[in-house]
Hints:
By secondary structure, the protein is mainly alpha-helical. The protein has helices at about 1-15, 30-45, 60-70, 110-115, 120-135, 135-145, 150-155, 160-170, 175-190, 200-210, 225-240, 250-260, and strands at about 85-90, 100, 105-110. The chain has one domain (about 15-260). Helices cover about 55% and strands about 5% of the residues. A 3-stranded mixed β-sheet has the order 1-3-2. α2 crosses α8 (about 160-170), α5 (about 120-135) packs across α9 and α9 packs parallel to α11. The radius of gyration is 19 Å and the shape is globular.
Amino acid sequence: MKKAILSCCVVLTLFAGCKKGDINLFTLEDDKKLGLQTRDQIFADPATYPVLSRSQYPSQYAYMDAMRDRILNSGKVQHKDDFDWELYIIKDDNTQNAFCTPGGYIFVYSGLIKYLDNASSLAGVLGHEMGHADHRHSTTQMTKQYGIQTLLDVVLGNNQNQLTQIASSLVNLTFSREDEKDADAQSVTYLCPTIYRANGAQDFFQKIVASGASQPPAFLSTHPNPDNRVQNINTKSTELGCNSIPTNNVETTEYVAFKNSLP
């Protein structure tokens, strides 16, 4: 009976404090648990996700880790110290993709790294994906997808097997228009105090538009329109008074050497 009353209190509290559609029944610890499960499932399927070994590619990971750390040390990442923010490179040159699980487990495909031209472009994508985790868009989306009762059962320990199914669906999760817009804005906010151009995320969309592709790859969603996202990102950067002038050595020379060193 006490457990049932607690369940009702949790639901009522969440409804009272959230707008419609913004309910998230997961705690920060749940985010970390889901992210860890997803990471381990990826590691267990090297045929689908050939993750590069950190011991075999230490300099490549050092470059990526330094980029991630500059973003984390911007002072703008809300859950900087709550999540693990582990980063991994997936060897797949045909996939222009990246994603970040709940709890901050970041995966970037080599195809995306090689598609981009400079450090700020990649930092912008990292910021975007980290924004999804930092603002907990994934677990909010999971609450919508699986429903309140199912997730209450998971949270209360009554249906732990459901966690495996939830974790497996996170890799290909599609975010809402508002979540994508928010993640774009967070990317600008995170990069603004760093050495990178704050509007770095717009580079990817500019390339998509220039190539004549009608839609960007799924990792940044098929909406809003790429042109609109470029405009929104640049507007946010201007509003914050951010740097739009790159540091040349970091911006291009070191980045080209980095991506050319990937297998």
